[in-house]
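Researcher: Quick sanity check before group meeting.
Model: Go ahead. Protein one:
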Amino acid sequence: MNKQRYWLGLSLSVIMLVMSACSSSTNSGRTAETTVPNTGEAGKTISPEETGTTPENSPKGGKKTIVFSTFNLDDGVKEAKIKYEAAHPNITIDLRHVETDDAHYEAELKKYVTATNTAMLSGKGPDMLTLDSLPSEKYVGQHLLADLSGMLKMNPSFIKGDYFNNILESSQTNGALYGLPLAFFLNVMIGDEGAIKQSGVQIDDKNWTWEKYAETLKQLSQKEPFKSGRGGVGNMIVLPPKTKQEPMQALLSKMVKENYPRFVNEDRRTASFESKAFTDMMAQVKKLVDDGLDLSSLSSMFRTDNVNSASDYLVMIKESGKQARLYAKPRAEGTKAGGYFYPYQIIGINEKSTVKQEASDFLQFLMSEESQSTAKRTGFPIHKKAYEKQVQQLLTKGTIKAYEEGPLKGQSFPVDPAQIKVLEDYLTGAIHPVAFQPSKIEEIVFKESQAFFSGQKSALDVSKLIQNKVTTYLNE
């Protein structure tokens, strides 16, 4: 993984680049435009419409097949399939994915999303599917996904305390869990603690809102060492915005993304963009710029980054400087204090599947300590004991090697137990989920808010327009 971190402005394309970087690019070839290759039998291709309702799924308890559809084939899921089938000879996991390369990735992903949407929205689709790159809000709104929380509660082997329950609970929609992340990334900020202390500016990052954050940045910019440019960890390239309004549009979209449940009720297919909370957020973003804050250079003092493992965190802090440390990200006014995370490898089960119970059992195997401890997966495992094993291995080894392509060029350094403790506080305190890929709703907010930031329309008029377009999208 390349650890040279570049901030490409505040445009929405950054999020797509993040998603692509985390996707596998080791596969090659492609045999059909709207079918997903079946990895169970050589040469066989299937359409996403097929489900577990195959002839062998007889009501008499015979052999059953679970169709599992995913765009990228994860080695952990592939390994779990082999182990699970060996222990359950009456179950076949029909694992289907798309084989592609970097040159065709975006085109194939678009075809996969279109084909899967068609299947799901027509009441068909696979029994299990990864939701990371799919518009799951539409599936939830049309009740196409099973409530996994109910299934887990009925299984006596499921013990909430064994998992990062803050992640599971925060991934719910109106108390129901329609997509279960097998892993997650922390979305954090990194700052120069030494420079901040030298400046004399007091920071309460656990409680700061965007307004308090902006005020802090203004204070820091007037103090040494930030005034002379000697402080900070924002070693990133900033591309100039296309328009004066673009940074404001992007920041508003980002804030909506990070406060998604506040404005969108997926289960009821309703939106709340005509609310005072949203118009206040629009006004808040505009005020930041009116007060002189340059949104295009926010990263000069604090850098937003993603942490995908304990070892990645240790290297990240080491690369960022001797006095670098984590800081909480600012939040919108009126929201709970807590960190942000990206759910990853989000698994859903088709509500219309005839093998829901079998799919649920396989899902529990995927999230078990056994499966998550042995699999080489990206991200923090949802199972706490699997994470603890990773940490223990780091502590036992005692040293860690930096990335060859990073600024430390493969240098080895001691594992700091104190830093591991800091990380754990952020892992258990993350409660705000943020989706990897930009949703259609974000695109609507980004596009339509330009009229407000350019002074062409009032906040109320723009909020009504966004409300109407989002509501139409949710009910299509």
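Researcher: Fine. The other one?
Model: Protein two, sequence then structure:
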Amino acid sequence: MNNQPLAYRMRPKKIEDVVGQQQLIGKGKIIWRMVQAHRLSSMILYGAPGTGKTSIASAIAGSTDLSFRILNAATDGKKELQEVAEEGKMSGSVVLLLDEIHRLDKAKQDFLLPHLESGRIILIGATTENPYLSVTPAIRSRTQIFQVELLSEQDIKTAIDRALTDKENGLGNYNIKLDQDAQTHLAIATNGDLRSSLNGLELAVLSTKASGKKQQIHITLPIVEETIQRKSMSGDKNGDAHYDVISAFQKSIRGSDADAGIYYLGRILEAGDLAIAARRLLVIAYEDVGLANPNAAAHAVQAVTAALQLGLPEARIPLANAVIELALSPKSNSAYMAINNVMTDIEKGGTGDVPIQLKNTRNWGKTKNQQIDYLYPHDFPNDWVAQAYLPNKIKDKRYFQAKGNSKYEQLLFETYNKLKENQQKGLKD
């Protein structure tokens, strides 16, 4: 058998074979249109590991019959970049997937820039870091930036089914029975990382002996749990328990039951889902506790940071601190509801234009018969002056409605109401 990992062998050769990321490569979407028009431009793909950055690059190259090379910005040097540039010079263009592009140093960057300008190298940078913060402006200005999303459970199941039936690159030459709950665990326990799911599947197959008259390799849930070193939250067939436990975790803390919150945290961590526990705690801190206890939200951020640095099993300790504090804190979803109401109004449209005095100064004076003087609050007593900030169509909207479950939030709401009243009075005068 080919010694290359299953995930590598199953890498798509054309854009239609990419699993997930339909917002980028689906029919009619931006990367699909680039390929169809044979008008490729350099780009940066950023997102979590195993979500398809390399697959998209490989599929782009395969769909256009261009040469495809992979380098790492941290470990490969100028010599390797020169070899790619020479290949691009000979063939016209070459697609270069440059992994960890955020670690590209100045010497390599200076070498690459003219080749990006000429089109000899079509760069596809891959990174798990936010390129707006980690990639140099010179590279960003010459690339399109696309965010790659976590793959869904169904996306990963689709890829698993392909791998099980593909006789050329997959496991189709084996007689495999994969139990439904085992497949579901492969799809959800790897947190959207298709590479981990496929390589876990391959290890399970290669380490399990065929048995029975049909010499069948039977992959059960316990085998998958051992292979990927993550326990299932439950032995249910459809994987609903995974989402049920996460839901119960948030609802218990929202309901101020510290014991239940700690219990469901333990269930999640026992399944090895540290990332899910951390992400959910941050959501709870700002959605459910919010302005009623901002200190608890800040403490949750600190706890999550510590947990991710420590890793399991020690990560359980700071997370347990956060769960108890969040569960026993006063609750308010006022900020959550405020931004939801704003987004609803924006989606409906018709909220109006930015007031002229708030616009960039380059636009001042373009509209006749309008007051365009921006009043600088720091020039006035108490650093405040009555001035219109919302668009005229929604000038009387009040998005913030406090619950008043803590003195801190009540104080904010009193200040909010006082400023609104003074603003309305000042604008009428």
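Researcher: One line on it for the slide.
Model: The beta strands are 43-46, 67-72, 94-99, 121-127, 144-147, 176-178, 217-219.
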